[in-house]
């Protein structure tokens, strides 16, 4: 269990919120004040040490739009509840819909945004309790030799705090791209890099603002999302997986598989997908593919339990995809 958490020493910053109505104003406010962008505010207010720049007054960041080619654009301020309320979106992107439905609680989904979920800070209790570590500019990771029950099993670098975004994994399976103010569009995977920079949970600079996520036109698929948690609701996943498969008869023709809760970044698993393509969707095929994911693992003493949990979660997810209605 986590050590007791003292009250955060930093309350709301002097000077209050900066409320903006355009993306350009938001970037300028961050540049001028050193503030931090706020979307739904489900996390930032618990650790606010700088004046938040409130994005909620920017209508261009909200909503779901459909393009002539059938692709979808999801504004970064679109709430997770709004995703679930869009029947066309949930039918077109079932892995994303299933993931969104599992996030947090209905109350949080009503205010939490797509952009906030993708770019949120990790949950490691050491920096959140003002202890020095790689994330705060130090030269050590106290979790490695300390309390790391919820940490990574795939070691990507100095920091072992897993990235907390659930939506990222589903978006990885759809090869989604991120529309960013201040730079060219980039693949969602490139939002996170390789996880070796312990000071950053994503690669955007402070004045680079995520505007939207772009999803390609949907294709016929069977998709599923599964997570393992310590309790059924209102809990961060210990391990999670999203998968999309297409079939020709009983043979898997394409596959995309992503996992979360196990590494510094959300991970697409191309080796697992390759092991599935061209094979019949038998339990032997699915188990052999899941074994390739666990082969990546180098767990720490307290996270060894996540290795069999990862395997079981992947098999469960892939098994759900073999049904016409997972």
**Structural class from helices and strands?**
alpha+beta
Give the end-to-end Cα distance, rounded to a whole number of Å.
33 Å
Q: Report the order of strands and helices.
A: EHEEEEHHHHHHHHEEEEEEEHHH
Mean pLDDT: 92
Assigned CATH architecture: 2-Layer Sandwich
**Count of domain modules:** 1
Q: What strand line-up does the widest sheet have?
A: 4-5-8-6-7
Q: Please, what is the oligomeric state?
A: single chain
* Biggest beta sheet summary: 5 strands, antiparallel
CATH hierarchy, class? Alpha Beta
- Give the proportion of residues in helices: 25-40%
CATH topology: Enolase-like, domain 1
How many helical elements? Answer: 12
Computed over alpha carbons, the radius of gyration is 20 Å
Strand runs, count? 12
Characterise the protein shown here:
With 326 residues, the chain is an alpha+beta fold. It has one domain (62-326): Enolase-like, domain 1. It has helices at residues 23-33, 80-85, 87-92, 94-102, 106-109, 114-119, 125-128, 142-145, 166-173, 270-276, 283-294, 306-321, and strands at residues 18-19, 36-38, 52-54, 64-66, 72-75, 177-181, 186-187, 209-215, 222-228, 239-248, 251-260, 267-268. Strands 4-5-8-6-7 form a five-stranded antiparallel β-sheet. A four-stranded antiparallel β-sheet has the order 9-10-11-12, sandwiched between helices. Helix 4 (94-102) packs antiparallel against helix 9 (166-173) and helix 11 (283-294) packs antiparallel against helix 12 (306-321). The longest helix is centred in the last third of the chain and has 16 residues, at 306-321. It is globular, with a radius of gyration of 20 Å. The model is unreliable at 1-15 (pLDDT under 50).
């Amino acid at each position: 269990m986590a050590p007791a958490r003292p009250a955060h020493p930093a309350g709301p910053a002097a000077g209050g919120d900066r409320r903006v109505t355009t993306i350009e104003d938001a970037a300028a406010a961050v540049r001028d004040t050193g503030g931090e962008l706020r979307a739904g505010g489900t996390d930032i207010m618990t650790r606010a040490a700088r004046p938040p720049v409130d994005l909620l007054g920017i209508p261009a960041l909200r909503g779901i739009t459909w393009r002539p080619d059938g692709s979808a654009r999801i504004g970064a301020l679109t709430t997770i509840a709004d995703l679930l309320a869009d029947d066309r979106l949930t039918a077109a992107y079932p892995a994303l819909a299933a993931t969104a439905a599992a996030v947090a609680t209905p109350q949080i989904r009503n205010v939490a945004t797509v952009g906030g979920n993708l770019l949120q800070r990790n949950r490691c209790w050491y920096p959140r309790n003002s202890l020095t570590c790689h994330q705060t500019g130090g030269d050590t990771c106290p979790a490695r030799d300390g309390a790391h029950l919820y940490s990574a099993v795939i070691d990507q670098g100095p920091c072992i705090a897993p990235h907390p975004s659930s939506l990222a994994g589903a978006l990885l399976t759809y090869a989604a791209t991120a529309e960013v103010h201040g730079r060219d569009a980039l693949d969602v995977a490139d939002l996170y890099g390789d996880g070796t920079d312990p000071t950053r949970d994503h690669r955007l600079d402070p004045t680079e603002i995520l505007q939207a996520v772009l999803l390609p036109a949907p294709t016929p698929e069977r998709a599923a999302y599964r997570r393992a948690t310590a309790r059924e609701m209102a809990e961060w996943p210990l391990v999670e997986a999203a998968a999309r498969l297409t079939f020709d008869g009983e043979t898997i023709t394409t596959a995309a598989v992503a996992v979360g809760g196990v590494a510094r970044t959300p991970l697409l698993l191309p080796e697992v997908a390759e092991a599935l393509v061209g094979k019949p969707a038998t339990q032997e095929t699915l188990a052999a593919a899941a074994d390739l994911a666990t082969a990546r693992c180098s767990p720490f003493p307290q996270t060894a339990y996540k290795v069999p949990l990862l395997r079981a979660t992947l098999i469960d997810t892939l098994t759900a995809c073999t049904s016409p209605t997972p």
